[in-house]
Backbone:
């Protein structure tokens, strides 16, 4: 069975141990996938985020998932794309690595990622998908953990990128 798969759809519907939120550093919610997760999950998640207080770019924190079908939400903060000279690639890699690390530390078996930073944060989708897939493959190999990873793409362009890159593996 494949450990890394892609689906097209809404991440709030995913019945996995943890869904990942593309949050902002203040953890105060917003638009895009962040807004969708807080709307669907209810106020409990925001309550926990307020207590945590914030999360630097590239890092990740975990909360429960309120009314969502998943058990946890891992909130990570992807980089804003400023053109490529502000360490954006490494920061995106860290966002994926730190989310996976939290999944491992909490003994989780499945995790679903949105396409972090590719919405309002403007990270080029092709580059972001390569980083997401490579970082995930390396993490699973290096850590020898059996975590099922699903990339949940909201738009067709991202879905095609992931399908093409995951094909044949
Ligand atoms: P960022 O600020 O990290 O760019 P966005 O939420 O603006 O975050 O976008 C990240 C990605 O999440 C985009 O590709 C966007 O299309 C996607 N997205 C938006 N809503 C959802 C959702 N409900 N489920 C999954 N992905 C979503």
Residues:
């Amino acid at each position: 069975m494949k450990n890394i798969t892609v689906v097209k759809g809404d991440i709030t519907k995913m019945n996995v141990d943890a869904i990942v939120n593309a949050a902002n550093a203040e953890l105060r919610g917003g638009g895009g996938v962040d807004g969708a997760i807080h709307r669907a999950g209810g106020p409990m998640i925001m309550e926990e985020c307020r207590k945590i207080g914030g999360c630097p770019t590239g890092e990740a924190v975990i909360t429960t998932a309120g009314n969502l079908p998943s058990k946890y939400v891992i909130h990570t903060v992807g980089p804003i794309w400023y053109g490529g000279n502000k360490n954006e690639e490494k920061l995106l890699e860290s966002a994926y690595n730190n989310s996976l690390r939290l999944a491992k530390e909490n003994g989780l078996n499945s995790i679903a990622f949105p396409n972090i930073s590719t919405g309002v944060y403007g990270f080029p989708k092709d580059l972001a998908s390569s980083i997401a897939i490579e970082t995930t493959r390396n993490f699973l190999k290096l850590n020898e953990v059996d975590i099922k990873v699903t990339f949940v793409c909201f738009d067709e362009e991202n879905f095609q990128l992931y399908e093409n890159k995951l094909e044949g593996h």
In short: The chain has a mean pLDDT of 97. Strands lie at 4-8, 18-22, 60-64, 72-76, 110-113, 148-153. The two ends are 11 Å apart (CA to CA). The chain has one domain: 4-167.
